[in-house]
Amino acid sequence: SSCVYFDEDIHLWQTDGCEVGLLTNMTHIHCRCDHLTKFAGFVPPNPLNIAEALSANVLENPAGLVLVLTVFASYLFGILLTRKADRRDLQKAGVGLLPGHILNPRKECQYVITVYTGFRGNAGTTAQVTVALNGFKNESVPFKLRDQQRVLFEKGSVDSFLVSTEEPIGELTHLRVWHNNGGYSPGWLANTIIIFYNVSKTKCRLLYPFLTKRWLSVDEDDGKVHRVIPTALPEDLKKFRNLFLAKSSRDINDGHLWFSVVGRPARSPFTRVQRLSCCLTLLYSTMLTNITFF
Q: In what residue span(s) does the PLAT domain sit (predicted)?
């Protein structure tokens, strides 16, 4: 440690007239200066001699080398897993067309249904999920949400589907969602369902949020696998609980560097491989900083 003062003429820290006092210990620095100015205690970093470090016999202290190589090997293994997950996310990011569904070319009859599955344990489902839309004018036929190219309704997944009705059903008032309780894990935690709807050929899209946030499972909640969900009102969207859960989920799964390697949203441009590489860089930088100052 050393005592320095700030030279306002050259805007640098200098040591002239300052010295470390006898009261310096492991937690405090005692500075003695013969002039009044802005002074502070300074702990300089340890000098690093890269050439000497590379030429040293690593067998004398192999723990550091083993740690660095273990971290890098774990990173390479993680790259294989995250790259595979990124490829799977590319399939999830698109909007699927239901098998056998004939799309009505009229824009005012088309709807994009986006389903958000919860992040809790066993939130995903293997059952066949069906949705029916209800508007002021009419009710749509049931839409079986299927896709032959991807696995649907996994934990934390976001799945989108393009559907259409024969005639416009008007502004949406509620929807019905249910599943057939099939497969080895039929229980499903439906978080939110958002529907985009073209009012007409000339008017822009409307967004209809449906806050489900309930289980469709015979073993959870009230044991029902059929729900009638009304369109969320503006005051529902502004409730503290809904805002808190939405923001915390987004921050953890997309904003947190380490957790987002696993929970990264499929539509995020920041891939899992990039996030994992940032984690490695941060870890190695922290190790280098510890070597420098400790």
A: 109-230
